[in-house]
Design brief:
Blueprint (H helix, E strand, L loop, with lengths): L1 H15 L4 H4 L3 E3 L2 E3 L5 E2 L5 E3 L11 E4 L9 E6 L22 E7 L10 E11 L8 E10 L7 E6 L2 E6 L6 H4 L18 E7 L7 E10 L6 E6 L2 E7 L15 E11 L8 E12 L14 H5 L11
Parallel strand pairs: 3-17
Antiparallel strand pairs: 1-2, 4-7, 5-6, 6-17, 7-16, 8-13, 8-17, 9-10, 9-16, 10-11, 11-12, 13-14, 14-15
């Protein structure tokens, strides 16, 4: 009897002090739009929404937790299990995307009732932590993307492979003088293998898992050649692109509203990925024009040291 009483008391204490996973989660979601209680987002100018229709939502998919953070009080925990595909409210069906379908658990700008887009010189950061897994990485596996709201090709996305993390640039697919040459437009016919696009290794595989990695980006969101994207990972510049970032706006269904989205998006080369994938995201910060507004000192970085670094510039003409 005493043993049973002890178990009941212990269970009560776990609930009182919010020590179990369900009680620790402070994320709220309504009509696909999430609401966080902690400090994952700093000065971020818009809200975020779950990718799929709410009928596909499960509480374990995205949680706000306090036991695994980069800095501050909370971080977001993403969990993607085998077969986690679904449909958007607009009808896009990831289960039928490609020969075997794709699996996704992402957050995108909450733009259902208003236009959301970055314009001009913007600084933003994202820190991520991927729990190591030991099954095949053949196919595609994205951590974050620079995307747009229309049918244009995503300008930039990550691809996690056996060899490391690659930064894939598809800006050429959105430039009229180039896509006309390939008889393509936007996502229709676009390929990262075009000579005007790029697939650049930005991290070695041994640098990726079971640790926090900090990404800082300075992007000039424009349709002009004065656009650029500079990216630092863990304080070191790894990529610099010069050229158009945003595609031209071309009629109904071709919006060029452009911003970041993040989470797990994967497509296996054959079948589906057999493993559960767990990732954490934190320190998603935003500032206009000046690096100093990000207050990177509490992450251990100096804007002056970051901006003094140089690397070979990637262009449409390579």
């Amino acid at each position: 009897m005493k043993k049973l009483l002890g178990i009941l008391v212990l269970g009560l204490l776990f609930n009182v002090f919010n020590l179990n996973d369900s009680e620790a989660n402070t994320l709220k979601i309504k009509n696909r739009v999430i609401k966080t209680k902690g400090d994952v987002f700093i000065k971020w100018p818009h809200k975020w929404k779950y990718t799929y229709a709410m009928e596909y939502w499960k509480p374990y998919m995205i949680q706000e937790v306090s036991d695994q953070t980069r800095f501050g009080d909370t971080a977001l925990r993403f969990e993607l299990r085998t077969g986690s595909c679904g449909k958007t409210p607009g009808g896009w069906d990831d289960c039928k995307n490609g020969p075997y379908g794709s699996e996704r658990n992402e957050l995108t700008p909450a733009d259902d009732d208003k236009s959301i887009s970055f314009n001009g010189n913007v600084w933003h950061t994202i820190s991520w932590y991927i729990e190591e897994f030991h099954t095949s990485l053949k196919g595609h596996n994205s951590i974050w993307q620079i995307h747009n709201a229309g049918d244009w090709a995503p300008m930039f996305n990550t691809d996690l492979t056996h060899y490391g993390l690659y930064w894939q640039r598809r800006t050429a697919c959105n430039v009229p003088r180039i896509y006309k040459k390939y008889n393509a437009k936007g996502n229709d016919g676009c390929s990262v293998s075009w000579t005007e696009n790029a697939n650049v290794k930005i991290m070695k595989i041994e640098e990726i898992f079971n640790k926090w990695n900090d990404v800082i980006m300075n992007i000039n969101y424009t349709t002009k050649d004065t656009g650029y994207l500079k990216m630092w990972i863990n304080g070191k510049i790894v990529y610099h692109y010069q050229g158009p970032i945003k595609p031209p706006k071309k009629g109904k269904g071709w919006s060029n509203d452009s911003a970041m989205q993040f989470g797990i998006y994967r497509m296996a080369e054959r079948g589906v990925h057999p493993h559960t994938q767990i990732q954490y995201y934190d320190e998603i910060r935003y500032a206009k024009k000046k690096c100093s507004k990000l207050k990177l000192e509490n992450l251990g970085y100096s804007c002056e040291k970051l901006e003094s670094q140089k690397i070979k510039i990637d262009t449409l003409d390579n």
